[in-house]
Specification:
Layout lengths: L1 E5 L4 H13 L4 E3 L9 H13 L5 E6 L3 H7 L7 E3 L3 H11 L3 E5 L5 H13 L6 H11 L4
Parallel strand pairs: 1-2, 1-3, 3-5, 4-5
Helix pairs in contact: 1-5, 2-3, 4-5
C-alpha cells in the first residue's frame, strides 16, 4: 500500500497519480487534501506516519515545487524524502539512499513525467551493500 498526499497546489496531480496507481492495480491510501487550501506540513506528517507505522511501504507527497513537502517530511524521524523531477535522480535516490518518500512538484513537472517517476520509484529496490552504511550515517544524524 502506498500513502499519497498533497496540498492544494498538488491536488490535480495527486488525482492523476491516484488514477495511475489504480489502473496498475497498486493499492493506495489518499490522505488529502481535497483541493481546498491546507497546510502541507499536516499532510506530510499524515503520510509519513502511515509509512513509519508500517501501514504503507512508501509515500508520495505533492505540492507546488515538492520542496516544502520534502522539508516537512525530512523533519520526521525515520523518513528519507527526496524531491525528484527526473528519472536518474528518482532511480538513484531509491538505489543509494533507500528513500521512503517521493516528493514531486506539481508546478514543476507534468502528469506524464510524474507517472513515469512514480513507476521508477515504486519499481526500484535499495541496493544495500556499501550504501547501507551511508544510510545508517544519515539516520544517525537524527540522534545528534
Amino acid at each position: 500500500m502506498i500513502a499519497i498526499g498533497c496540498d492544494h497546489a498538488g491536488f490535480p496531480l495527486k488525482e492523476a497519480l491516484a488514477a495511475h496507481l489504480y489502473a496498475r492495480g497498486i493499492s493506495y491510501t489518499d490522505l488529502g487534501c481535497d483541493g481546498s487550501p491546507c497546510d502541507y506540513p499536516d499532510i506530510a506528517e499524515a503520510v509519513c506516519k502511515e509509512v513509519l507505522n508500517g501501514n504503507c511501504t512508501c509515500g508520495i507527497l505533492l505540492c507546488g515545487t515538492g520542496i516544502g513537502m520534502s522539508m516537512a517530511a525530512n523533519k520526521i524521524k525515520g523518513i528519507r524524502a527526496a524531491v525528484c523531477s527526473d528519472a536518474f535522480s528518482t532511480k538513484f535516490t531509491r538505489l543509494h539512499n533507500d528513500t521512503n518518500i517521493l516528493c514531486l512538484g506539481a508546478r514543476v513537472i507534468g502528469s506524464g513525467l510524474a507517472m513515469e517517476l512514480v513507476d521508477i520509484f515504486l519499481n526500484t529496490e535499495f541496493e544495500g551493500g556499501r550504501h547501507q552504511r551511508r544510510v545508517d550515517m544519515i539516520m544517525a544524524l537524527e540522534e545528534k
